[in-house]
Design goal:
The chain is α+β, with helices and mostly antiparallel strands and 799 residues long. The chain is built from 19 helices and 46 strands. The chain folds into four domains: 238 residues, Orthogonal Prism (Agglutinin, subunit A), CATH 2.90.10; 118 residues, no CATH class; 89 residues, 2-Layer Sandwich (Phosphorylase Kinase, domain 1); 207 residues, Orthogonal Bundle (Transferase(Phosphotransferase), domain 1). Helix 11 runs antiparallel to helix 12 and helix 11 runs antiparallel to helix 18.
């Protein structure tokens, strides 16, 4: 990237231009409503407006700033992109100096306020900046300091600032990409996980660690990344830039992950050869499809799709043959199969075929590789393997890939060909044939023939009598068989397989390899006979406990009805005699306990991704599945990690299952020492807040990578993590929690928020703890996190 010297007068000039803007004051007590005829305030030139921007669906609004003099009312900033409001909402500059957005029910959605003095007025500037000012005109809050996806001329992004893309062109919630001016001086573009916004590997960087300083969009229309020694990287076009006097300018991190600079002519005379629309004059990276190489995540496009530059070099996302978009309105959201997947039962290979796609690959979904080989052998290997969804053949190598496919791309640099497995015609898997007739059924048929023979030779009365008896016998026999088969049929409706005990004994090689054990069960590793790599986890319940036997089928059905990416999936069960077993998918990366406490410290971003996943899983159990489930034993040992280190909540064996209309229960103490909420011991009602407490303890463990209780520490106060973390927070020394974890220290804003959430969760008073939905919103930054009180103040108040 070219490097040129930065003029010393450049930064002061930009700052002077900002502060010299004219403005129209918005006085304290002023407000706007979506019901107003013109629900916005306008800058002096009329080029920008601040207020309620109506979304295309017509009944939702953003509190936003937009270009107002052009037909395309382009939004450059919004306060509530993740939570649009309905009609009847209001924004007010209160008499206390807060800018407050409330919905039609008068619930607070967003606020802005000063930490640097009393606010006297507000204004929309001709730069597109909305500001709060003191009586001496000093700006104490400005939208330029909290950008969304766009920066404008005269705007500067300092260390720690970021842009977040929108989800789609018409959906203003946070999307899948971030631009960050990192505290280490590097300007970096990241793909991120939704909805946590945790970052994957960077796909573009300025490589200015320890030297970068500010991303500047100057008043001439150029974008620079300045360095501390006075030099700068020129990001925008090296040629002559069109004037900001004749053209509107903006630079946006678009929903597709590309950072683009746009211009729009202000009038016909200045347009020249430029179209009267937004035109791109510069963008980075030049090819997003090949730029993203993260080892986790879906890549530039969603899972099971592939990225392909269009004629304007914009990345487009397409589905391979036999697949279609999950959401036709969001082509970046991934694709799904349009056919039933290949069964692992024998004899169905001929019902599938392979479709070719040249120069296409999904480089991160391999599970087997052959070399040397030829294309015919590669085809046969994929067609005969029920787990193979795609085979890649290139230069004598054959890679077999399974779903979901990630990081897909079509580009001449890829080479080779992809072989996509699809079903022939409209084939769908047939149910297994009925079992062969038994001797009992033959005897029943003989009996029926005999009865009919007698009927035909008897009187009317006797015919009626015999007919009634026969019908009753047939009904009783059928009902008896129905009762025998009903349990399996009902669970099959949930896609659960009913195993025999002998099957599970064979699958686990006589329950040979133990994965773990708890107070109520032992978990063994097994492998399905159809494939030596298809591992499962078999949980064998200790049926000495009568309460575990009671309601076993209810538990199976309830667990089978749960479907969430952050829960371990139940595959089947066994209920035979005194045997009660549950069969789960196998998690290759073990437990969170091993991940945190054994081996080197895991990366900060991966830890945050796991924490956010656990929160979403618990929110689902508490609020979104059919019957509320209180887990009662949330701890790192019960959080498992799949192939991509996605957190999966496991072990529902001691869960308390509630009906939809119930909210609390009182029962004996459950859970594990160190994670058990105080109300268990105080004869208080036990609610879902017990899981919130346990999650808070575990969240601190995730932050610190240490166990909650460390008996080897001599200092009693520091031996208990919850006490120590609370003390560190109140002393303003959260850095002590992560010691020399530079990745976490570089992300102090998020670490501060996550630590505050954890301290809210471990409040001794259950009523002070937030719900898991609120916890998830706070972690994701959708809801502001206030300063938590001392978690242990409740102890003294009841002592």
């Amino acid at each position: 990237m070219p490097c040129v010297r930065l003029l010393l007068l450049f930064l002061p000039l930009s700052i002077v231009v900002v502060t010299a803007q004219t403005f129209r004051n918005v006085s304290l007590g002023s407000s706007l409503s979506t019901n107003d005829e013109n629900p916005y305030w306008v800058s002096p030139s009329g080029e920008f407006s601040f207020g309620f921007y109506r979304l295309p669906n017509g009944d939702r609004f953003l509190l936003a700033i937009w270009f107002d003099k052009i037909p395309e009312k382009t939004v450059v900033w919004s306060a509530n992109g993740d939570e649009p409001v309905q009609g009847g909402s209001k924004v007010e500059l209160t008499t206390e100096g807060r800018l407050l957005l409330t919905d039609a029910q008068d619930e607070e959605i967003w606020r802005a306020e000063s930490n640097n003095g009393t606010v006297a007025s507000a204004a929309v500037l001709d730069t597109g900046n909305f500001v709060l000012r003191r009586t001496d005109s000093v700006i104490v809050w400005e939208s330029f300091d909290v950008p969304t996806d766009t920066i404008l001329p005269s705007q500067i992004l300092g260390l720690g600032s970021q842009l977040s893309s929108h989800l789609t062109a018409k959906n203003y919630s946070k999307g899948r990409f971030q631009l960050r001016v990192q505290s280490d001086g590097n300007l970096v573009f990241y793909p991120v996980n939704l909805p946590t916004q945790s970052r994957y590997d960077a796909y573009w960087a300025s490589d200015t660690v320890d030297s970068g300083y500010q991303l500047v969009f100057n008043t001439s229309g150029y974008i620079y990344f300045t360095q501390r020694n006075g030099s700068m990287f020129n990001l925008s076009n090296n040629g002559k830039m069109v004037s900001t006097k004749d053209f509107y300018h903006r630079a946006t991190l678009d929903f597709d992950g590309v950072f683009r600079q746009y211009i729009y002519p202000k009038n016909h005379s200045s347009s020249g050869s430029w179209a009267e629309s937004w035109s791109v004059v510069w963008y980075e990276p030049p090819n997003l499809c090949t730029a993203i190489r993260s080892e986790v995540g879906s890549g530039a496009c969603g899972f099971n799709s592939y990225c392909k530059p269009d004629d304007d070099q914009r990345p487009s996302c397409e589905c391979p043959p036999g697949y279609s978009y999950l959401d036709p309105n969001n082509t970046f959201g991934g694709c799904k199969q349009d056919f039933a997947p290949q069964s692992c039962d024998s004899g169905v290979e001929g019902l599938f075929e392979l479709r070719e796609m040249t120069s296409t690959d999904w480089p991160l979904s391999d599970f087997e590789r052959y070399n040397p080989t030829n294309e015919d052998e590669c085809r046969k290997a994929c067609l005969s393997d029920c787990f193979c969804a795609v085979a890649i053949f290139r230069d004598g190598y054959c890679w077999k890939k399974k779903l979901p496919l990630s990081n897909g791309k079509m580009d001449p640099s890829v080479g080779g060909k992809a072989l996509i497995k699809v079903s022939r015609g409209n084939f769908t898997l047939r149910p297994p044939p009925p079992p062969p007739s038994t001797g009992t059924e033959k005897n029943e048929r003989r009996t029926l023939v005999l009865v009919l023979s007698v009927l035909l030779g008897s009187s009317v009365f006797l015919n009626f009598l015999f007919l009634s008896v026969a019908l009753f016998a047939v009904f009783f026999s059928y009902h008896k068989k129905l009762l025998k088969t009903q349990p399996e049929q009902s669970t099959m409706g949930l896609n659960l397989r009913c195993f025999t005990y002998k099957e599970l004994e064979e699958i686990t090689d006589g329950f040979k390899e133990e994965l773990g054990r708890g107070a109520f069960a032992i978990v063994y590793k097994g492998v399905l006979a159809s494939n030596s790599q298809n591992f499962i986890a078999v949980k064998k319940l200790d049926m000495v406990l009568k309460e575990a036997e009671k309601g076993f089928r209810t538990e199976v059905i309830l667990i089978g009805q749960t479907h969430h990416k952050n829960l371990v999936k139940l595959l089947g069960f066994c209920e035979e005699g005194s045997h009660r077993l549950l069969v789960y998918e196998f998690m290759r990366n073990g437990s969170l306990a091993s991940f945190l406490f054994e081996g080197p410290r895991p990366s900060w971003n991966k830890r945050m991704q796991i924490a956010f996943g656990i929160a979403r899983g618990l929110m689902y159990l508490h609020e979104e599945c059919g019957s509320q489930i209180i887990h009662c034993d949330i701890k790192p040992q019960n959080i498992l990690l799949d192939d991509s280190f996605t957190a999966r909540i496991s072990d529902f064996g001691i869960s308390k299952l509630l009906k939809t209309n119930q909210s609390r229960t009182t029962t004996c103490v459950r859970g594990t020492k160190g994670y058990v909420a105080p109300e268990w011991f105080r004869n208080m009602p036990v609610t879902a807040k017990v899981d919130v407490y346990s999650f808070g303890v575990m969240l601190l463990e995730i932050i610190c990578c240490r166990k909650n209780i460390k008996s080897e520490i001599e200092d009693d106060q520091n031996a208990v993590l919850t006490y120590w973390a609370s003390d560190c927070y109140r002393a303003g020394r959260l850095d002590m929690l992560v010691e020399d974890d530079t990745e976490a220290l570089d992300d102090m804003r998020r670490m501060d928020r996550v630590a505050m959430v954890a301290l809210w969760c471990i409040q001794e008073d259950p009523s002070l703890r937030p719900s898991m939905k609120k916890v998830t919103q706070m972690l994701e930054g959708a809801v502001e996190v206030s300063v938590p009180p001392n978690p242990y103040s409740f102890i003294s108040s009841i002592g």
